[in-house]
Amino acid sequence: MLEGGFTKGSITTLSGPTGCGKSTLAMQFLINGAEKFSEPGIYIALEETKSSTYSNMSSYRWNISKLEGEKKLLFLDYPIEEVDQFLFSNSAIEELVSTMDIERAVIDSVMPIALLFQNDDERKKGFLKLIANLRKWGTTTLIVSEDTPATTQDVLPRTKYGIESLSDGWMHMYYLYDDTGSRKRALEVLKMKGVPHMSRIVPLEINEGGISLDMTGVKEKKPKSQF
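The structure assignment produced for this chain is given below.
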């Protein structure tokens, strides 16, 4: 779907409704980086605790604790009352990223940061600060965000707080009904600066290995340059 993957150092919003698999995809991004490409990662949880995240991921064939012990994966969780420290005093994280040669990062999710601000203007300034801080890390980063209700494939998705407008890329996960009335998950790449990408919704499955795309019957010509 991405003609090879993310651009190194890019920041991508990953959005979708509750239960669609956002955190799973985000963790899989770090697991694959550590195991397949020797790229250490950091998972920063702003909603869940470390123990609850480990519990939620226990059904997958991932040895997260092993990767953490080998310093291939760093896990940080921030209680709700300390989220402001992550946004405004994150020089310690930047130092960890540098010291451990971390190349991939996940922020899960942006909602607690958004709630720090009383109006849209303040929130946008806060998000700009967040993006600027992440740029300093130099990591390839996924920012998880909830979407607005009642998203369908017929309407352009929107995240709840608009973080997608400030990131380099934007991927959206869906719950869609098929012809039998069953609810199915799917993924769409809506924006990815500097990367030729597929412009269609692709079904996905979640199993013990994580997320896999169902590319059966999916054929799309590579985008042609217009300039």
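Interim note for the steering committee: Helices lie at 22-36, 50-56, 64-69, 83-88, 91-99, 111-114, 120-137. DSSP finds seven helices and nine strands in the chain.
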